[in-house]
# Entry
Amino acid sequence: MPRTVSIAACQFVVRPVGSFDEFAAHARGLLDRAEGADLVLFPELFTIELFTTFPDWMDLPVSELTRIHRYGNTHYTEDYRRLFESEARERGQHIVAGSHLEKKGGRYLNVAYLYGPDGLVHAHDKTHIFPAEAEWSTEEGDTIEMVELPFAKVGFNVCYEAEIPECAASLAEQGAEIILCPSLTFTEEGFWRVRHCAQARAIENQVYVVHCGGSAVLPPGGPLPSPWGRSSILSPCDTPWDAPNGVVAESPEPNIETVVQGVVDLDRLHENRENGAAPTFRDRRRRAALYGEWPGHFSA
# Structure
């Protein structure tokens, strides 16, 4: 019997809300549409919707985004964690709760969460932040770890991490079969950088990549970006898959709120690594010693 995984990528559109409960209802609405999926994803930093709950949010600089962690009597990080821990348990699904700006050990980090119905809580601190993120006082994490779920081995490449080939390569070396790429890109150019890189990571590592992006409908003149996103589930480009372009499923349009659903076959990955037309995962490692033969190579 083939090992298959049903995946749903929730293309969340940020909009002004008045409370955490309104944000939670927004997220639950998309989870309802993802019913039955083994693995459900939300975009990177979709919790910036919570920033709109502050009465003065339109007048705040973007550097104040860290308010969504904790500000005054609001404790949104705790609320966010409880929400998705509960939803994963009650729905019997593994949920990638996008990512959230969170204070850890005196530093603000962009933290991606994976929740499981059995109580699993896996946190990944984004290791390579986009330059604009530094303006929000965000720093970088130091760990890239594969996570073994009951149905697949997975790992995070959050947005810009997908543009750094070593991030996906590290996960593939650890055994990852599906790379989770929650993303938030401020421009169409940024979207295509991540999308093209996500497809490249799928090809060179012979893995699936789930690129889950978001967008926003916000009043003009405010501090929040207007992201450009189109979610997709990507595979290597080879004959075991029906789509020659490596797209298992994708949103019919960018910047709309929708749920992209598809089923991936993990056995095909391993068969493709052994017998595929382009055995890139094996060949990428086969001559690894060659890559360090020039001055200033990566291992220096």
In short: The two ends are 46 Å apart (CA to CA).
